[in-house]
Write a structure and sequence with these properties.
The complex is a heterodimer.
Chain A: H1 3-15, H2 20-41, H3 44-60, H4 72-97, H5 112-123, H6 126-137, H7 142-149, H8 153-178
Helix pairs in contact in A: 1-2, 2-3, 2-6, 3-4, 4-7, 5-8, 6-8, 7-8
Chain B: H1 10-16, H2 32-41, H3 49-52, H4 57-78
Chain lengths: ~180, ~80
């Protein structure tokens, strides 16, 4: 049984009343979900909040998951993505009204190489960044990404193509400046 | 069939693989009080920074409190 199949089996068990299956789903999906939100926002506390809210929502709407429509991982990522976008848009609105009340981003310390790749990903426009993260780091197919982001499959391919091009430009420029090339 | 656009991008893949994320330990259930406290304690931008970091910033910081104090002193006399 693959990991994805195991997650789906656990979700069905949870829907059938096995509450311990929910904890198992959390254990399996928490690392990938957290890393997705963190690479998108680069904010630790925000990422923790979104992961927790996602699983609270999964708990509340567990019967809305239909294994015939897709995998539970895609379902969970879709919930998380919607929550993240809603929260980020709300923050942008507050920032325009009361900029001094919105927390500033937590930068943290990073190894030099990770700083440039982290920066390159952060510099991508949001609609390019999300497709790269889902495709590369979470091995999602174009169809799954299309379902999560609610955009056509062709748009996923196009955004992925442009994102790769931009990443290469950013990273090659960084290496040129550092003298690596 | 989905083609992998990263297949020929060896160098890019190598760089992307360097982006490691440490997963913190946190509970499944959120603690609302903790969230409120964290938001209140989180650093924010100083809204006066653009004013006080300018060329006349020091003067503004020194003069404005005096002006406010003078207004508050003399305002009751007018009414």
């Amino acid at each position: 049984m693959t990991l994805s199949e195991r997650e789906d089996v656990l979700m069905i068990a949870y829907q059938n009343g096995d509450d311990s299956a929910f904890e198992s789903i959390y254990t399996l999906l928490k690392p990938s979900l957290y890393s997705f939100i963190y690479r998108y926002t680069q904010e630790e506390q925000f990422s923790i909040d979104i992961v927790q809210d996602t699983f609270m929502k999964l708990q509340k709407y567990k019967y809305r998951f239909d294994p015939k429509k897709g995998k539970v991982k895609s379902y969970v990522f879709q919930i998380a993505y919607r929550l993240m976008v809603t929260k980020l848009n709300r923050r942008k609105k507050w920032r325009s009204l009361l900029p001094f009340l919105v927390p500033i981003m937590d930068e943290g310390l990073h190894h030099a190489d990770r700083l440039s790749i982290r920066d390159a990903v952060a510099k991508l426009p949001e609609h390019h960044r999300v497709v790269v993260l889902l495709f590369y780091y979470h091995s999602m197919s174009h169809e799954e990404i299309s379902a999560i982001l609610e955009i056509p499959k062709g748009t996923v391919k196009s955004r992925l193509h442009h994102a790769i091009k931009k990443l290469k430009e950013e990273l090659e420029g960084d290496e040129y400046e550092s003298g690596s090339l | 069939m989905n083609q992998d656009p990263f297949k020929k991008e060896h160098h890019l893949r190598q760089r992307l693989d360097e982006y490691h994320v440490d997963i913190p330990d946190f509970p499944i259930k959120p603690n609302k009080l903790e969230r409120v406290l964290f938001t209140l304690a989180a650093p924010t931008r100083n809204p006066l920074e653009p004013i006080i970091s300018g060329s006349n910033g020091v003067l503004i910081v020194q003069v404005v409190p005096i002006i406010i104090a003078a207004i508050m002193t003399f305002l009751p006399l007018l009414f």
